[in-house]
Amino acid sequence: MKKKLIIIPLLILGLVGYGIHWAFFDMDRLPKGDLISEMDSPGGTYTLKAYVSSGGATTDFTVLGEINFNKENRKPKNIYWNYHERTADIKWIDDHTVVINNHKLNVPHDTFDFRNE
């Protein structure tokens, strides 16, 4: 009986925590918008696609950066999302390092999300 009194609240807290993360911080749920730029890494391992999205009259433009895996069978991953931007200046340093609007990311592990700044 005491185990149930401990386990059930922990499960509820875990589900609530996951729900908050899913609803407010999961980068895979972001709107894509319109494709504005696409650039392959020097070795062709990745393709970075940049999209611009408008939230309408109440919010400013955002830029979303999505990595596509050209040599692996993996689904695309959102690695960049920034507010108050309409363009994407993409520069590949090497096959695993990209700079998007002055934010340096180690692909595919690093992400930039303005909500976490």
Low-confidence stretches: none
**Overall pLDDT:** 87
Shape: globular
Question: What oligomeric assembly is this protein in?
Answer: single chain
Read across the widest sheet, the strand sequence of neighbours is 1-2-3-4-8
Helix proportion of residues, in percent? 10-25%
Number of strands: 8
- N-end to C-end Cα span: 44 Å
The radius of gyration computed from the alpha-carbon positions, rounded to a whole number of angstroms, is: 18 Å
Task: Explain what the structure shows.
By secondary structure, this protein is of the alpha+beta class. It is built from one helix and eight strands. It has one helix spanning 2-24, and strands at residues 34-40, 46-54, 61-69, 77-83, 90-94, 97-100, 103-106, 112-113. The strands form two sheets. The chain has a five-stranded mixed sheet with strand order 1-2-3-4-8, with no helix packed on it. A three-stranded antiparallel sheet has the order 5-6-7, with no helix packed on it. A hairpin with a 5-residue loop joins strand 1 (34-40) and strand 2 (46-54). The longest helix has 23 residues, at 2-24. The chain is globular, with a radius of gyration of 18 Å. The model has no long low-confidence stretch (mean pLDDT 87).
Essential attributes:
single chain, 117 residues, alpha+beta, 5-stranded mixed sheet, 3-stranded antiparallel sheet, 8 strands, 20% helix, 40% strand
SSE layout:
Layout: H1 2-24, E1 34-40, E2 46-54, E3 61-69, E4 77-83, E5 90-94, E6 97-100, E7 103-106, E8 112-113
Parallel strand pairs: 4-8
Antiparallel strand pairs: 1-2, 2-3, 3-4, 5-6, 6-7
